[in-house]
Design goal:
alpha/beta, nucleus
């Protein structure tokens, strides 16, 4: 599981998002949860173990990541959790036929700025289909130069910052990494912005 290949490693963002799910575990039973860019699937596995109905997904072009999702489920005695190929920014039969969703999870999906709009396009599509759903996401601050604010506005989405101390994730052992450099993790919840007059 600790293969350093991207998508095959438990990144610090996944640990922080899993901590948020654990802190909200009493609200998870019966919730319908979709994890995008799941890779090793730590947040999705935690949600499923807490009683949520989980679907895991990763790119159609990354079968090894989807296999990692399946392996994580088997290791955690969750053999019936579905794993789908969903590619950000692409409308596919799998995306169109997704069951209703309450919570979308994404840990460290905001990694490469060239993917940001594809991710938010997919999130917007899912939130339009599920207007009361929320996208719970953690990300690592890698550059002061990137921001998704303009894209959130473009896609009529809003974000709410979630302080790590509010769910006990501000401890160094939770968000630390053996990789060099500083690892500042942030969390936000993205939802549909209110339309004018509603």
């Amino acid at each position: 599981v600790l293969d350093s290949q991207y998508g095959m490693y438990v990144w610090p963002c996944a640990v922080v998002l899993a901590q948020y799910l654990w802190a909200h575990r009493r609200s998870l039973p019966g919730k319908r949860v979709l994890e995008i860019g799941a890779g090793v699937s730590l947040p999705g596995v935690v949600a499923a173990r807490c009683g949520a109905q989980v679907i895991l997904s990763d790119s159609e072009e990354l079968p090894h990541c989807r296999q990692s999702c399946r392996s994580s489920c088997l290791m955690n005695r969750l053999p019936h959790v579905p794993v789908l190929g969903l590619t950000w920014g692409r409308v596919s039969p799998e995306l169109l036929s997704l069951a209703p969703t309450d919570i979308i999870l994404g840990s460290d999906v905001f990694f490469d700025p060239k993917d940001f709009e594809d991710i938010l396009t997919t999130i917007y599509f899912l939130l339009e289909k599920n207007p009361h759903a929320e996208f719970w996401t953690t990300y690592q601050v890698r550059s002061a130069d990137w921001s998704i604010e303009a894209l959130l506005h473009k896609w009529n989405l809003k974000s709410t910052h979630v302080p790590l101390h509010s769910f006990g994730a501000d401890k160094e052992h939770l968000a630390s990494s053996s990789m060099p450099g500083r690892h500042t993790i942030e969390m936000m919840i993205i939802s549909l912005a209110q339309s004018e007059g509603t």
